[in-house]
């Protein structure tokens, strides 16, 4: 992965043009990962609960840009070695989510500037809308940079547009 934002450790690219929401993580979450609203929120929590994994067609909510762990936009899985790339490392921790505006995000595959992006299957990366989108596919962001192949971190404009069909 190429990190074009080495100096950015928390928050959106432009604070004045972004909506940032405090949430509760229901699992370990990577910096720059797309998160979904968790459908099973405990009655004792006042903030929305989010997770990376989609198990019950949960609604895409935004991009994780910080949290109690406040990691960096680096490589590795949710428990990759030192875990420096994590926004949160366990359920119940606070997480900061961009729901509108520009921020770095994890992406997968070949992406061009201006591509509409959806959250991949059950994962946490963004990818371009397929030729035949599924009914559950929702456009969550627009690419502001290119990604040539594989996994990467690019700037996106989070604009939840709804159905990709």
List the helices and strands and how they pair.
Layout: E1 19-25, E2 29-30, E3 34-37, E4 49-51, E5 60-67, E6 86-88, E7 94-108, E8 116-119, E9 126-128, E10 138-143, E11 151-163
Parallel strand pairs: 1-4
Antiparallel strand pairs: 1-7, 2-6, 3-4, 3-5, 5-7, 7-11, 8-9, 8-10, 10-11
CATH topology, by name, is Virus Head Decoration Protein, Chain: A
- Number of extended strands: 11
Count of helix runs: 0
Q: What spatial order of strands do you see in the largest sheet?
A: 1-4-3-5-7
Largest sheet: 5 strands, mixed, barrel
The string of secondary-structure elements, in order, is EEEEEEEEEEE
Roughly how many Å is the radius of gyration?
Answer: 14 Å
